[in-house]
Amino acid sequence: ACVVLLLLAAIAAIVGLAIALGLQLHAPATHNWTGFLCNDRVTCIPASQVCDGTANCRNGEDEQEKLCGDLPRSLPAYLVFHCGNPEYWVYADQRCNGMNDCGDCSDEMGSLAACPPCGPAWWSCSPVHYEYCSCVPRALCRDGVQHCVSWSDEYLCRP
Question: Tell me, which GO biological process terms does this entry list (predicted)?
């Protein structure tokens, strides 16, 4: 907490000095590999909140025409995941989220997605039915609904 307060004090001092000297502080929007960093250099929003019709950055730079005018080509490459079917794409934060966002599971399986194996909160079975690809949330284990083709989510999985 002390480090954060010192950092904030230093930033405030720099901004105050820049204002006193009449300098304009404007940094272009950038990224931190996990989302979209707003121009304030503090607010980071998930990729899927860029060009969603709601201004999530204070100055609305996540909804600017130059960024959202020709989706997905106008987006920086780090915000986009191209599905196995070249006609489809999803936001980068939808890759490896356990859901079949591409429709062909290419955002969850295979070398393009490069997803880690199922974590402890998930049950691994492939293929699965419906919206999941290879991992089913353990909360769905033994719920009386078949999620794995093998039925392993009903007979072997423990919530």
Answer: vesicle-mediated transport
Measured distance CA(106)–CA(127) in Å, rounded: 13
Enumerate the domain spans of the chain: 2-116
pTM of the predicted protein model: 0.70
Phi, psi of 67, rounded to the nearest 5 degrees: -90, -35
13 by Cβ neighbours in 10 Å (0-12 / 13-18 / 19+) ranks as exposed
Question: DSSP class of residue 121?
Answer: T
How far apart are the C-alpha atoms of 45 and 36, rounded to whole Å? 5
Q: Enter the tokens of residue 114.
A: 């490069």
What are the structure tokens assigned to 48, written together? 């899927």
- Residue among 47, 52, 27, 26 nearest 36 (CA): 47
For 81-134, the pLDDT digits (tens) are 999 999 999 999 999 998 999 999 999 988 888 998 888 999 999 888 778 888
Whether omega for the bond prior to residue 28 falls within 30 degrees of 0, making it cis, is no
